[in-house]
Amino acid sequence: MTAPAATATAGEVISRYLTEQAGNFLRALPQAVGEAGARPGALPSLNSPAGSGGTLELLRAVRRVGGALHTFGAVFEPGWAHESRAELRWLLNLLAQEPAYQRRSARLLAAVDSLSGVAPAGEGGPGMLAGHQGAPKARALLDRQLTLARTRAHSTVLQELRSARLHALADRMTLLVGEAPLVEPAWGKAGEVLPSQAAAAFAALGAAVQALPLRRAATAYQGDALHRLGGAEPSGPAVVPPQGRTGDADSALAADDAPWHRVRILLKRTRYALEVCGRPGDQLVELDRVLDCHQEAADAAVTAATAARTPRITPATAYVLGVVHADQRLEVEAARFAFGSRWPELPLSLDGWEGPPGQRMG
Amino acid sequence: MTAPAATATAGEVISRYLTEQAGNFLRALPQAVGEAGARPGALPSLNSPAGSGGTLELLRAVRRVGGALHTFGAVFEPGWAHESRAELRWLLNLLAQEPAYQRRSARLLAAVDSLSGVAPAGEGGPGMLAGHQGAPKARALLDRQLTLARTRAHSTVLQELRSARLHALADRMTLLVGEAPLVEPAWGKAGEVLPSQAAAAFAALGAAVQALPLRRAATAYQGDALHRLGGAEPSGPAVVPPQGRTGDADSALAADDAPWHRVRILLKRTRYALEVCGRPGDQLVELDRVLDCHQEAADAAVTAATAARTPRITPATAYVLGVVHADQRLEVEAARFAFGSRWPELPLSLDGWEGPPGQRMG
């Protein structure tokens, strides 16, 4: 996308963006349905990448349309925008699970392999668990549990992809192609209406980042992920404990991670808002990737801890799962360090639109 | 100590240093014997700091005399110096064990407490193992095994502190007070003889550091301690596996740690050589501390791994020990990072004695 022409209205700019994304949605949908149901009745092939092609394209479009409807909500018919966002969130949660389980499986099995020195690592030699008798069992346990979770997620997708709810959502997307239901502020100049709304998204992101323990995260090896949890985020959002049986430890970690996960969502919204406005967001893309890693490592750590509570496993297996858990929490800490190192380089303002670029907020 | 006067001979300077250290040795020895045998026949109080006072002073003197005899070996009668160093090494190994077990116990129990959130941490909240059922059991297991090891080390010290071998070593130290058996190069000017020998110690240290994977260690979160082991040190010294049952993993870690442990020894020698020459070595003191931490964390990780192989422990206990193992290996990695960050700031040369200070080697 290019920057909006000076004469364009806000409605024209946002409609052009939504038309493009809704088109992507409608092209990707049948492809995703085909992928999911390619072998009806059979289990999905667990070796082929879940959501390659169609599903990932669909997720991309869903995130962008939802983000635009949220950030630029003032230019849309409110009831319609609200409903649309709810339905998009439903589809997002539905579709994201299977690829997430697949990435988590790849991440955890690679960690076990690397720690036990069986991975075809380039320069590395044997890892911390080289020759450890528990490693193959822990690997098999993780593989089994994540395959089961992925299979269940796939079945749910298969069911819902044929539902009336999805058809209704597809109809909504069809309407978006050229005909988004706009209201008053949409008739204003794009350069006046949109930046202020994108700036609000940016401000929300900035405020959430300010509340993070960034100074600590920006110093390496502060033990954030392993030792210093909880106390620093007294006003964090309510914590939804991860699925499965949970202990105090899981809750403490979830509470510690929650503000970071929230920043990830706000950062995606800001990133898409910049896309709507035709502004470059390369730095946000990179930070988005870092926070995706943060989330995936945090989820993987929970999976390792949950697997360690499987009845009748051997102590050797449990020991390896403990190492893997700590390893993934270390990845969480590394992601925070990477975020903390890069964030201050961002020009935290949209002033660039109306003044000199590069100015920093706070 | 102050820098040697321009007119002093090498023998005078080194004798003054050895007289001081041998005096420390002879004052600390009866105190250490008294501490060890305060309650003959009874077990030592395991709550009082082992080697507080006497033993630690004795260790300080033993390390310094041994270091001086090694680095400035050319000015001593060779047979005498060789024998003295062997006897000092014996006493060092004998005395260092009990305080080492005590520090390791403190380190590991603090790690379990911190990870399980029961430590009275200032700003931190609950850690990664908060409420985990295995934490108290793992703590008790580590406490029991390290107490046993410390008690054994104490008994050995008690025996040897009354041995003829120790009395003979004390006689050697008495001889050192004012009467070190010097040979020819000792009559040369201190400013000409000593720096070249200290420089050789510095060069040995520099060469050993060059062989470390320093560039990797200087970047945070490279997974050195957990993942990338072995391959990088093809020419490292032969590895003595840690005590107890060992697996491939322990061997791989020991091989990875060995070059760092070697640098620690060379750094201590260099540090004491600077003391002899009356030169400031504050930066080396700090790096020495970092490498002590490196060694202690590496040893603690082995203890956690060994404890996890105790028969009939529960999976929950083993899981916690796995987390603790990874945590200590993370401390190893953090120490390498700290070393890699500070080392390049050192003026790696003794040219300061004969030219402009601050010049850097290689």
Task: Lay out the secondary structure.
Two copies of one chain form a homodimer.
Chain A: H1 10-36, H2 54-71, H3 78-115, H4 134-160, H5 164-179, H6 190-210, H7 214-217, H8 248-276, H9 282-307, H10 315-342
Oligomer: homodimer
Distance between the termini of chain A: 30 Å
Uncertain parts of chain A:
39-47, 229-246, 352-362
Highest CATH level, the class of chain A: Mainly Alpha
Structural class of chain A: mainly alpha
Pfam family, one (chains A, B): CHAD
Protein name (chains A, B): CHAD domain-containing protein
Structural features, described:
Two copies of one chain form a homodimer. Chain A is an all-alpha fold. Chain A has a single domain, classed as CHAD domain (Alpha solenoid), CATH 1.40.20.10. Chain A is built from ten helices and no strands. In chain A, helix 1 packs antiparallel against helix 2, helix 1 packs across helix 6 and helix 2 packs across helix 3. Chain A is globular, with a radius of gyration of 22 Å. Chains A and B meet through helix 8 and helix 10 of A and helix 8 and helix 10 of B.
